[in-house]
Specification:
Radius of gyration: 23 Å
Structural class: mainly alpha
Number of strands: 2
Strand content: under 5%
Largest sheet: 2 strands, antiparallel
Order of helices and strands: HHHHHHHHHHHHEE
Helix content: 55-70%
Low-confidence stretches: 254-266, 272-287
Mean pLDDT: 78
Distance between the termini: 62 Å
Number of helices: 12
Number of domains: 2
Length: 287
């Protein structure tokens, strides 16, 4: 199937694999932890394997295991899983403008393979919306890498749970591996505000039932990021209309650009290579 892809899509797919590779240790650690937890719970091995393949959502899988052990009603288990996975609604809304041209069946498959790190790294590329050659292949490169590493580690954890002591601290290892990826995504003030507010809300509401701390943190992050963006726009508009003359350096006047350089994605669809945008060369006119 890989050989049947066009040359552009092959390069884009491999670029997606390369892009997600730094997240494989974190994904593998979390999958291993989830597999061990499922094997040591009330689930049988076939049930644990089925949950890993069907759910493919480590946070919700870990959240519902104590509820299965306590034999709570099914609606309680489903509500908890829905609360934990509510963030995927936001991820889907963010991907919708990029893949709206695809048929419903393919969009549903994309939704199954989507995940936190995949969405984060996809959005960092600043792809234009709509159809673009190589963009879907790039997504599938990341999705295949993430899904494979997760399922392999989860199945290893399920089948070999007795070989992993509880005091190894694998949960902490997975968290530490994710921190650099999250920090690298903080590129704007609105993102920084969203991360800060979400962290505080998650800690304050940690003891709420049904894992409500997670959707509350997500909602608070959206509000904080939107508020910062709105305030930044108002301040920018106020500066433009204030009428205060700007100080001009006569000796070293700032170069005047005749056209604004359009924002280009890091992935170049014409070559399939990862290229960072380069600022146009500016020259100083002779006096």
């Amino acid at each position: 199937m890989f050989d049947r892809l066009s040359d552009l899509n092959r390069r884009a797919f491999l670029d997606g694999v390369k892009t997600l590779s730094p997240a494989v240790p974190a994904t593998f650690s979390w999958g291993l932890v989830t597999g061990i937890a499922m094997a040591k719970s009330v689930l049988t091995v076939p049930q644990a394997l089925g949950m890993s393949l069907a759910a493919y959502a480590g946070s919700s899988q870990l959240a519902v295991l104590p509820l299965f052990a306590a034999k709570l009603p099914l609606w309680t288990i489903l509500l908890t899983a829905a609360m934990v996975n509510l963030r995927f609604v936001i991820f889907s809304a963010g991907l919708a403008p990029h893949f709206a041209y695809l048929p419903l069946r393919r969009r549903l498959v994309l939704g199954y393979f989507n995940g936190d790190i995949i969405y984060l790294m996809f959005q960092k590329r600043n792809f234009p919306t709509g159809y673009q050659p190589g963009k879907e292949a790039f997504f599938w490169g990341m999705a295949a890498t993430s899904w494979s590493s997760w399922q392999i580690s989860s199945i290893v954890g399920i089948l070999l749970a007795s070989l992993f002591p509880d005091n190894w601290g694998l949960e902490l290892a997975g968290t530490l591996a994710l921190i650099p990826l999250i920090v690298s995504a903080i590129a704007t003030r609105s993102t920084l505000a969203a991360v800060g507010v979400a962290s505080v809300i998650a800690l304050v509401t940690l003891d709420l039932p049904y894992r409500l701390s997670l959707p509350l943190a997500v909602a608070a992050a959206l509000l904080a990021g939107t508020f910062v963006d709105v305030m930044a726009e108002k301040l920018g508009a106020g500066r433009k209309t204030s009428g205060v003359p700007r100080r001009v350096d006569v000796e070293n006047p700032a170069p005047r650009l005749t056209e604004a350089e359009p924002l280009q994605p890091s992935f170049d669809p014409s070559s399939g290579l990862d290229k960072s945008p380069v600022s146009p060369k500016r020259t100083r006119s002779a006096r």
